[in-house]
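Bump. Still looking for Putative flippase GtrA structure tokens.
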Amino acid sequence: MTLNNIVTFFRFIVVGVSNTLVDFFVFFSLVALGMPYMWAQIFGYSVGVMNSYIWNRSWTFRAKGAIMKPFFCFLVVNVCSLMVTIAILHVCKEGLPIFWGKMIATMSGIAINWFGIRMWVFSTKSVS
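Sorry for the wait, here they are.
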């Protein structure tokens, strides 16, 4: 792993932490207001995705050029991640407190997003 890859991964993690904070804040606020957790997950995750695209494009991967194609690919990766996180929340809801289900779902989403975003959306082939 090169120094550039390490720096890129570190930036991805920093952006991911900010996305997670935004997502968790929206998710738990909506749940506290009585919204069902599945809808709260969709809204919280969506706000985090908007934050993620802006910061990953401009700071993490420093992408230049086309905006719409990478944004579409970014959305595809995140819809896949959202479906996985919802499924995990659904499976965990019976045996775990919502916080732990959300943590497990979030860790799974991070893995999906890293590989999808790094290898497809902002790959060095499409960025350079």
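Residues 1-65 form one domain.

Edit: fixed formatting.
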